[in-house]
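Dear colleague,

Thank you for sharing your sequence with our group. We've completed the structure prediction you requested, and as agreed, I am returning the results in plain text so they can be pasted directly into your records. Please verify that the sequence below matches your submission; if there's any discrepancy, let me know and we will rerun it promptly.
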Amino acid sequence: MKLQDLTVLKWLGTTDDFSLNDLQGRVVLVHAFQMLCPGCVLHGVPQAQKVFETFKQEKVAVLGLHTVFEHHE
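Please find the predicted C-alpha cells below.
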C-alpha cells in the first residue's frame, strides 16, 4: 500500500531524506509540538524521547513535528 507522504521543506536532525513509504513495517509516532507550549516541553517532548529510547529503531520511528499553533505573529 502506498502511503500519502508528508510535504516537508527540510528535515532537521537527520541527513536522510525519506518518505513515509520508507518507514513501512514500523510503528510511526508523529509528535507535534511547540517549544513555547509548557505542556509540550514538560510532558510531550519527554514522552517522545522515552519512546525513541525504549524501542528499537527498526520497529518504531519517532518523527518530531515542530509547529507554530499559537503566538505565530
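Summary note from our side: DSSP finds one helix and two strands in the chain.

Kind regards,
the structure core
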